[in-house]
Amino acid sequence: MFFSPTVMPARKWRALSVLTVVCLAALSALCAEQPPVVGGRGEKVIADIPYKSIGGRVLTLSLFLPASHGEGPENYPVILFLNSGGWHSPGPGDGGIVRELGAVRRGYAVASVSHRSVQKEQVLCSAAIEDVREAAFFLRDHANEYGLDPNRFAVCGVSSGGHLALCLGTDPERPVRAVIDFFGPTDLARCFEVLQKIAPEGLRLLLGADPDKSPEDQSDEVRRLIAECSPLSRARQNAAPTLFFHGTDDPVVSIAQTALLYDEYRRLGVKSELFVGNGGTHDPATLAEKPVLEQTIFRFLEECGF
């Protein structure tokens, strides 16, 4: 598994053909008209909502809503779960750890989001950042249709999903108001040497980089992308409040990566909290028992106004 980070400038949407826009709008309208189905946990589920069409592929997300959905006025806080591992996303997924920890039961809507995959679709990591950003704005633009509160959007991700979540949290247009990060890489330049040893092809796939050269010797475009893809480089005073999780024995992403951004946020005055799992590895289940993770996450979100 490799690491990756990315920045998106102010809100820019890729230019789509008129036909693509019309098709995507029609698909979105169709999904909005379809009644939610009842999921196995008593939740209401709207699956595979198209949020973007690019290169002949339609990217989708799935919504998991409280059982009371449709019975009266609604204004659910939202947690976006970014279904990503190694910057690969096989589809929108099932809401991941936040749904598993009872977000929907607590009255949240969970939006499970897919993105383009670096290796499968031969795109750089910036494409994945762009995709999840557009998913967030898509849902905010359609909040009334689904009973969502556009002012209470949080995002969560694990590993590469954590990196993508951190990038949303540092976006200048603030598409989210809180971030829950499980061991996402924060500084790609510092990851470079490790990647050269364990996954040199990953550098080429993620950044178009030459794995035989140091970060300083890359082309201007690659060096720019390394900076843009690093949440640490993107850190700013108005970044979204962030809850970091990391294990002391993570063999994939060093806890030092999280410490770098956590320390920078403290310096900048950004609300942030670091949960360290003693002996924890690259798996949320190794960091603490589920009730502890649940209490920590939802207490933090409540402090952020959710």
Description:
The chain has 306 residues and is of the alpha/beta class. The chain has one domain (18-187, 230-303): Rossmann fold. It is 38% helix and 20% strand. It has helices spanning 18-33, 96-100, 118-121, 125-141, 143-146, 160-169, 188-198, 200-207, 220-228, 231-234, 255-268, 290-303; strands at residues 37-38, 44-54, 57-65, 76-82, 109-113, 148-158, 178-182, 242-247, 272-277. Strands 1-2-3-5-4-6-7-8-9 form a 9-stranded mixed β-sheet, with helices on both faces. Helix 11 (255-268) links the parallel strand 8 (242-247) and strand 9 (272-277). Helix 4 (125-141) crosses helix 6 and helix 7 (188-198) crosses helix 8. The longest helix has 17 residues, at 125-141. It is globular. The two termini are 33 Å apart. Residues 1-32 have low confidence and may be disordered.
